[in-house]
Amino acid sequence: MPRAVFTLQVRPERLAEYRERHAVVWPDMLRALRDAGWRDYQLFLRDDGLLVGVVETDDLTAAQAAVDATEVSARWEASMAPFFATGNGRGKAELELVFDLDAQLRALEEPTTAPSGDLS
């Protein structure tokens, strides 16, 4: 599965509320993401407000456009815009993959998991 990783900056003074809002996201927003092709989507938040998103999708740009086309996304984005240092959540900075352990192990024709057994 293709995976995209991106960053955003949440305002540090809004971290607690940002976490609360994501504890239970609106069901129709969850469905819109799923239906737009977002799979295994996770957000990680650092104490200084750095937000890292990880999502499996065939094309992040197309998946973002598909979810943006929904009414619920417009409402969600409007409600979340004040949380971001950029003024909105649209300024995703996609990160470039520079190392993939499994890919390099496969290139060596090595197993991608350690042998099972007693590690002591």
List the SSEs and their pairings.
Blueprint: E1 3-9, H1 15-23, H2 27-35, E2 39-45, E3 50-56, H3 60-68, H4 71-80, E4 93-94, H5 101-107
Antiparallel strand pairs: 1-3, 1-4, 2-3
Main sheet strand line-up = 2-3-1-4
Order of helices and strands: EHHEEHHEH
Q: Which spans have pLDDT < 50 for at least 5 consecutive residues?
A: none
Query: Mind summarizing the main beta sheet?
Result: 4 strands, antiparallel
CATH class division: Alpha Beta
Describe it for me?
The chain is of the alpha+beta class and 120 residues long. It has a single domain, classed as Alpha-Beta Plaits (2-Layer Sandwich), CATH 3.30.70.100. Helices cover 37% and strands 19% of the residues. The protein has helices at 15-23, 27-35, 60-68, 71-80, 101-107, and strands at residues 3-9, 39-45, 50-56, 93-94. Strands 2-3-1-4 form a 4-stranded antiparallel β-sheet, with no helix packed on it. A hairpin with a 4-residue loop joins β2 and β3. The protein starts with a strand and ends in a 13-residue tail after the last helix. The mean pLDDT is 89.
Features:
alpha+beta, 19% strand, Alpha-Beta Plaits, 5 helices, 120 residues, four-stranded antiparallel β-sheet
